[in-house]
Amino acid sequence: MATKVVERKPLSIWERSYLPQVVGGLKITFKNMFKPTVTLEYPEERPEIPPGYRGVPTLVRDPNGREKCVSCQLCEFVCPPKAIRITPGEIPEESESRHVEKGPKEFEINMLRCIYCGFCQEVCPEEAIWLQDIYSLSGYSREEMVNNKQKLYELGGTLPDPYYKWDRKKQAELEGNPHH
Question: pTM for the full model?
Answer without folding.
Answer: 0.70
